[in-house]
Amino acid sequence: MENQPSGRRAFIKKTGLLGIGIMVARFPVWGSSVFATGYPKHNIPAEKNIDPRWIAGLYQRATATTYKKSRNELRYIGMPVGGLHAGTVYVGGDGRLWLWQIYNETFEGAQEGIEPKIVNWNDGTTVRKIRPRDGSAYIEPAIADNKRILDQGFALKTTVAGKTIIKELNADHWDEVVFTGSYPVADVVYTSKDFPLEVRLKVYSPFIPLDAEKSALPATILRVQVLNNSTKALPVDLIGWMENGVNKLSGKPGSGSKTNTVSFGAASVDIVSGFTTTDANLSNASDHGSMCFTYHGNGGKANPALDPWPVETVDFNPLKTLEAKVDGDEKLVGGISVSQLLAPGKTMQADYSISRHFNNVNPKLKKLVKDAEQGYYYASRFKDARAVSDFIKTNFNELTNSTELWSNTWNSSTLPHWFLERTFLNIGTLATANTYRFASGRFWSWEGVGACAGTCTHVWQYAHAMARIFPSLERDLRERVDLGIGFDKDTGAIIFRGENETRPAIDGQAGTILRFYREHQMNRDNAFLKTNWAKIKLAVQFMLAQDKNGDGMTDTPMENTLDAVWEGEIAWIVGLCIAAASAAQAIATEVGDTGFAALCKAYVEKGRNNMERELFNGEYFIHRPDAVQGRKKLGSYNTCHIDQVYGQSWAFQVGLPRVLDEKKTRSALRALWKYNFTMDVGPYIKTHIGGRPYALSGEGGMVMNTNPHNEEAPFGEDVSWQLGYFHECMSGFEHQVAAHMMAEGMHEESLILTNRIHDRYHAAKRNPYNEIECSDHYARAMASYGTYLSACGFSYHGPKGIIGFGPKWNKDNFAAAFTAAEGWGSYRQKLQGAAQVHQLQLKYGTLRLNEIRLEKIAKLDPKRVKVNLMGKNINAVIAGKGAQLNIMLAQEITIQKDQTLEISIS
Description:
This protein is an alpha+beta fold. Among the domains are: 152-403, Beta-galactosidase, Chain A, domain 5 (Distorted Sandwich), CATH 2.70.98; 454-661, Glycosyltransferase; 793-905, Immunoglobulin-like. β36 and β37 form a beta hairpin. The protein is globular, with a radius of gyration of 28 Å. InterPro entries: 6-hairpin_glycosidase_sf, 6hp_glycosidase-like_sf, GH116_catalytic, GH116_N, Non-lysos_glucosylceramidase, TAT_signal. Residues 78-392 form the Glycosyl-hydrolase family 116 N-terminal domain.
């Protein structure tokens, strides 16, 4: 995370953070009040006074979250629907596409965020100017109607009682529009009281977990369904249109021509959009490329230039004109229509897609990342937008069916709909201008859209979603960057921003070691470990060496995610390194390096014992100052810090043994709940000035760092700009705590915290699909998937063929989706009389198993187990202690797509 302007590092080096007056001028976002004498009193109530009935409601399955026109909830909605790593295309609350951040403009210091603007915010004492990287979109969210760069939409025409009626799929044309969006599929329904047709629009880009290729198409699919609710057959004409967006920003009068060309396939119609010019500047412009608007079906009629315009004046049954051309700065809109006499109670369906291809990478990005010089990965697969469309045509059934199969599998869980939505939707960050995949195949990202370069290790290590949904991307990132471009082969240091930095970050180093173990677990075999063990070992040795006094507690001052170099022994960093050493022990054991495994084990034991003895204050874990420096520099010291037991949180995510005492850890989490969580941050942020606006008055959340015992100068003597972080609610950190609370059995607190984030991003207030930290669609927020995994009690080790589940509630009747190395599907468990029945239904790919780890839910002690795969009995025995039931298969099995493995324990 970085809030500061570019050049901050050099500035800090020169000033040593001593010139407070200069610092205030340099970083006005924090405001002079940060440097006031005296520290405000802690004012978060220990008793939360939450209505038990409201809490009970959080556990209910309920229904999917809907946003309605009638409640004024549509204008901020922007779900990414443009494919992974291909810019940002949003679908809005009324189904129209908007934003179109596809022109390679996004860049730090110029085009940050989804709407680069500075807004004013009254923080309780002063009015401050908030930049995009500081949360301007949280204060004033982008409004869809203000960002419709390209004209796109649908309209239908019918005749009722002799009267011709035209309605656009636009909120203004209907009595009610209802948006339901469970990522990756948006579902919009349009109805009017006195109108006989009801319309449903589904919008998404192909999204298939484990298939990073087919999920990364620069394209959007739009499925329109029209239902005749009347008692008579009605003529229905449906038209879709798309503006030629090529050279939209750079086109000038007389500089070239926008062109639309129609072509007909066996069961499709295309309108291919381009721009012809002899001007090299325009052909090399970042918005030069191609687009393709396609109807997938028979009977489509196309017009490359709808004129006159708007749609109310358009012929819905255009002639088959094949080409249209306009001057470079003029608007060119093509349309494709279909017609049907629709019988009563029947539905007509029309499938469209919009593909795009803009491969002129921002020149600044080429200077920042050498891999960018050859363009984007999708352009190495497809020569233009027409080729993308052709691929969709050829694979249309697979792409749409698999996407909707995943959506249905995910949503068929017994977990609450709101919980499923909030824990998964942040994976949409991969389908925004925050992430790129270059022609070399390399994945690269900002921290938030256009802000803070280099796929930062100390941010991305919080983000669990991509590793579980697209594990091949994470493995490649580990090998290509963390053990490649960003790896110091002499020391084992992992540079925390690849080639965009020169230093390691201690939390990024430890977190990446844990990620090595996770990526190994999400692989089918040991190839990842065998190939990379020598470098992984060196990276671990570098981390272990940062414990200078040999007590198992890292004490080397080094960069961390709060953008400061803290002195002393810091609970969250010490614990994270202990967890990383535990992961290293597991890795070393698997590769047969018993000596190194023993070394790591000794580090874990010594570090754990010392951390629990020296850094636990009887209630929570603290930061012990350096013996020489004392509290001269910024730190968390005796305060209550959100990440204090983060290492144990990580350990749960990858199935490691406990790295911290359960009683002390739960005490620390209860302290965070008591001192840092509030149902209304208003009183706190009004008195504790300096944080960025990621939660406002009337909204709940967990504050980063609080001073519950009201010490003077609680964060050290040298007050620096990073202190502002402590007063914020940053959702990525909150999701990390929620995941940990869930894993520790504190599911009530976990649900409340997650729900408060969900409420902060309700569509009545801002975009539900854009969790903001340092700029929009912040990568750390993908920590939310960890809360889902914890709720399922999910564990997995692909090479060993082990999978496990231990849901935190609804144990008698539970269902949820899962992903593994080579397949995904649905897990179910149910209590049937005295027996408990568990099922693994595979929906996609394959799943290789040797062992299934379950929990006892029946009252009687289990004596018998029956394992059946599609009618074939599999020999198995029960192992484990207490409530743990490990089903050991006599021989390895592989579950295929559409097969079900059933386990009955009685």
